[in-house]
């Protein structure tokens, strides 16, 4: 199992073409295994760029902290 934290912001596109943002937090248990908590945000975005801007403005996201799926 990888001990590298996952990128904290996941941007996904659903069947309707709407983008959603998931904020992820990685911490490690006493044995060093990662525990990832993912929280899907309520907002919907028309573009991935809008989702990135929301993450930057509201969560302090920086370039390189985004993953897409």
Distance between the termini: 21 Å
The helix count comes to: 1
N-to-C SSE string, H for helix and E for strand: EEEHE
Task: Compute the number of strand runs.
Answer: 4
So what's the overall shape? elongated
Helical content stands at: 10-25%
CA gyration radius, whole angstroms: 13 Å
Low-confidence runs (pLDDT<50, min 5 residues)? none
| Structural domains: how many | 1
Strand residues, percent:
35-45%
List the helices and strands and how they pair.
Blueprint: E1 9-13, E2 19-28, E3 34-45, H1 48-59, E4 66-68
Parallel strand pairs: 1-4
Antiparallel strand pairs: 1-2, 2-3
List keywords for this structure.
69 residues; alpha+beta; 1 helix; 17% helix; elongated
Question: Can you summarize this structure?
Answer:
The chain is of the alpha+beta class. The protein has one helix and four strands, in the order βββαβ.
Structural features, described:
By secondary structure, the protein is α+β, with helices and mostly antiparallel strands. The chain has one domain. It is 17% helix and 43% strand. It has a four-stranded mixed β-sheet. The radius of gyration is 13 Å and the shape is elongated.
């Amino acid at each position: 199992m990888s001990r590298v934290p996952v990128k904290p912001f996941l941007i996904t596109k659903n069947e309707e073409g709407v983008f959603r943002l998931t904020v992820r937090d990685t911490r490690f248990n006493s044995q060093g295994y990662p525990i990832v908590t993912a929280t899907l945000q309520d907002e919907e975005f028309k573009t991935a760029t809008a989702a990135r801007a929301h993450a930057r403005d509201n969560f302090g996201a920086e370039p390189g902290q985004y993953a897409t799926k």
